[in-house]
# Entry
Amino acid sequence: MDERCAVPHRPANAIGKAIVVIAGPALAALIPMAVTPALPALSAAFGHVPDGTFFAQMVMAAPAAMVMLGAPAGGALSERFGRRKVILIALLLFLVSGIFPVISPNAGGLIASRLILGIAGGVILTTSFSMAGDYGDHTRERILGFAGAGAAFCAIVGMVLGGLLVDALGWRGPFVLYLIALPVLLLSIFVIDNHKQVHSRVAEGTMPVRAQIPIFGLTCLLTIGLFMPGIQGPFLLRANGITSATTIGAVLSTYSFTAACAAASYGTLRRALSANSVLALAAFCLGAGAAIFAVAHSIPGALAGCIVTGIGAGLVEPVTMSLVLSRSHPGIRQRCVGLLLASVFLGQFLNPVVLSPLRAMFDEHGAFAIVGMVLVGFAALILWRGFDARASRGRALGASEN
# Structure
């Protein structure tokens, strides 16, 4: 295979592979969201453990740390064993560990299955996203946009169906939703080929892994802003006197819906704007949305903040993933995708860590204002400097290493 390894514009089993690429992030979105409606029931069912509420929260949150580990591990495993074997095993583990709590009556088995689910989810994310690199530019942009939209819509649907299943079947009910991995697994068996990895580290026109570190770092920063409505929003709404959980959930759901619509439009947007411009737009919307939250003291203001932030949130993952895929040689593509996804989950983890002291010093509104100013500043910096210069240096470095 030639070192330059031109990417085919229509790979074999193109439609089936595209479905798997889109399904991967959707499955990962179900990991926390499907369980969220069951938290009170879980807490009551495991009231015999020292802290039932904390245990229920850990059931939802524990997989996130494993996803952060599984994503880069999936890249390394795919390079060593090929993506077909890796994604099939990951999908099987996802299916088994996902539905295991339906038959597991003990706390230890429940937590263990959730940890395995997180690792499998991270591997699925890396391998599915890396397959998007098999497509030509315009097709890849559309697929990545639909993948982001699918994840957002799946999160919404998962929460709704999860609540219905809790009412019908008790706390075990939502775990049935992980059966959706079965048709994805069956499809993958037939459409994913035994991909032969390219063992050269880098090729001319692409960037080595370390040259992509600025993209990883920026992604982590943007992800901190991306999770402002979901993690910090309920506290700001409560500070504004909005205490109804139903009202808070309805307000924040507009964020997820807007993010899904923005992600779905990414492919069309990329035909009019460069990747660098879309990245700057995403950073600006995240910052502007946080600033709107900072001055909002009513439900309409919070809705406006959710909508503007949602536009930026829907664009972050497709554009950063596209940048990494377009500048990574197939031999290191899985590794780069895994590190990018680890950056996303690191940003999610860092959001409460970074915001906690800001809230203590400036209250909720002040914390949102500071985050908004920082992100708008980075949007201006992206427009001014961009990644073009770094890409040129990365290609020169790659050529010298090659």
Remarks:
- Residues 1-8, 197-205, 388-402 have pLDDT under 50 and may be disordered.
- The CA atoms of residues 204 and 399 lie 5 Å apart.
